[in-house]
């Protein structure tokens, strides 16, 4: 994407994030990655009269795995202090799950993560409608005490919801201390530490992230008191188990966030060769009517598990109930106030 077009979509983003004259913004990158993002955001911010600079960390060697929560900022408390003094941080590294991100948010700096390919950012711009619907979904989730998920493939799992807050993601952020991720469009929370029980059958066409692949044969998870106790199936199950075992951390078997997708611009089918623009899979996390569960850390929600072993698994065709009231039925949102037309 050329700088002019990239600047235009960043301008839309910063307006949706309430950026105004005199605000202090920092764009964070590392190594030679996403330097064009910094250029585009800085050009956009200047047009809104923001005071901006670009903080660039040294490159880090690739680890081969998606180890969440470990960032180059950890060794640089001075840099963290500078980011705490900003009104808004545009994170082009992916700081999520790190203690540094939590400290920066706690200081009142709002954070927008932008790491996905520019063509995806352009196709999934934040809108007022998505924000409004996601916020309504978040309120419904926050009131609920129990979430139950079922599917025709045999999923039947219950999350008790007495502990953790609800998090909304609608791809822009205009409130102090609030984090969001562009692109997105979903809501999630976490079950009580010992309050998730049942079975989840990940079915063909469901998606493994960070593997960025469609499941071909069912993977059956057994969950007892908040922990995965068994993963069974064919090749896909073996891939998941082998990936998790490589972290050598039993806390990877914890149950992480859970919720549903609400973005009518996100496509389920786009993660195929020739179409997939690369990136970390925010489109499949967001597609309208998906139900996403995940395993691993819950520190993002305030919980004790900070394992770096994290999988997100968006599923099609599920039904989701809050206190026995249907929200998603067979992969379609059935609550009138949450419905949007798919594009
Ligand atoms: Fe996740």
Automatic annotation (TrEMBL):
GO terms for molecular function: aminopeptidase activity; metal ion binding. SUPFAM superfamilies: Thermophilic metalloprotease-like. It comes from the Bacteria. Keywords: Aminopeptidase, Hydrolase, Metal-binding, Protease. Pfam families: NicX (PF26233). This is Leucyl aminopeptidase. It comes from Jiella endophytica. The lineage of its organism: Bacteria, Pseudomonadati, Pseudomonadota, Alphaproteobacteria, Hyphomicrobiales.
